[in-house]
C-alpha cells in the first residue's frame, strides 16, 4: 500500500521542496496551495498524513485544521510554521495536530515527523475502520429507531498478540501503540446487568462479533423499534443484526469472510468459553435516542491467521 501525503502551503517553493523530498523517499504526494483546495483534495486523495502551513490567506492553517477534523476525526496532521507564536501552535496541538515543524527545517526532521504517522498505522486504520462503521450505523438507526436518532463513536481499544521480535525492532515509538504484549486465551465475560448478542465469522474458530447492552437500555431500543415497525417479532435481534452486519460487511470483500446472517442471544453458558485469538477490538458506541444516551459495547474477536489490524490495511476503505 502506498504512503500518501498531502502538502498544504501557499508557497510554491515550500510545496515543491517537500514534494521532492517525499517522492525521493517513496511517498505518493499531492499538493494544495490554500485551505479550500486542501479540503477538496483530502476527500479525493485520502492521504495518510497532511503537512499544513499555519499562515495562509483566506482560510488559515488553524481553521483548515478544524475543517479537516470535521471530515475525518482521525486525520494525522503536522503543522508547519515560520512564526514564533507558541500560543497558536499549542492551540493546534490541543485541537489534535500530531506535531509541528518550524521553518526552515532539515530534511531529516521532516522525514522523522512523517514516519511517526506510519509507526502508529495500527491504530489509525482501526480507528478509520470503525469510524466508517459508525457512519453506516448512523443512517441505519435513523431508519430503524427514529429520524432524529444518531450514533457516536466513543472509544476504540485494541488488544493484539505481538509480532516477531525482528519485525518489532524496525518500528519506532512502539510505546504509543495501544496493543498489549500478549493475549492468553480469554474468557468471554458479560458485564453485570448486560444482555449479549453474538454473530460468528465463519464459525467460532475464525472469530465472533459480540455486543453488550444494559437490559434497561435494550428495553428502550425495543420500544422504539416496535413504535416504528409493529410487525417486527424479534426487535432485539433486528437491532443487533444491523450492528453486526455493518461491521462484517466492511470486512467481507477485502478478507473473503463467510458471514452468518443472524445474531443469536449470548446465553450464560457461552460465558464459560475461552477463545485463543490474534486480536480483540473493543469499541464503545453511543446511540442518542430522544435525548437519552444508550451505550453499546461491541467486541470483535478475530482469529483468521493474521491480525485484523494488519489485514484491514488492505481493505478498500478509501
How would you summarize what this structure contains?
By secondary structure, the protein is α/β, with parallel strands linked by helices. Helices cover 39% and strands 25% of the residues.
Element-level helix/strand string: EHEHEHEHEHHEHEEEHHEEEEH
Our estimate of the beta-strand percent is 25-35%
The biggest sheet, with number of strands, parallel, antiparallel or mixed sense and barrel status, is: 6 strands, antiparallel
- Pick out the low-confidence regions: 161-185, 267-272, 304-318
Report the structural category: alpha/beta
Give the proportion of residues in helices: 25-40%
Mean pLDDT reading: 75
How would you describe what is shown here?
The chain is of the alpha/beta class. The chain folds into two domains: 3-119, Rossmann fold (3-Layer(aba) Sandwich); 122-314, 3-Layer(aba) Sandwich (Chemotaxis protein chec). The chain has ten helices and 13 strands. It has helices at residues 12-24, 35-45, 61-71, 86-95, 107-119, 121-144, 165-168, 215-228, 235-255, 308-311; strands at residues 3-8, 27-32, 49-53, 77-81, 99-102, 150-160, 186-187, 194-200, 207-214, 264-265, 274-275, 279-289, 292-302. The protein has a six-stranded antiparallel β-sheet, covered by helices on one side. The chain has a five-stranded parallel β-sheet with strand order 2-1-3-4-5, sandwiched between helices. The longest helix has 24 residues, at 121-144. It is elongated, with a radius of gyration of 22 Å.
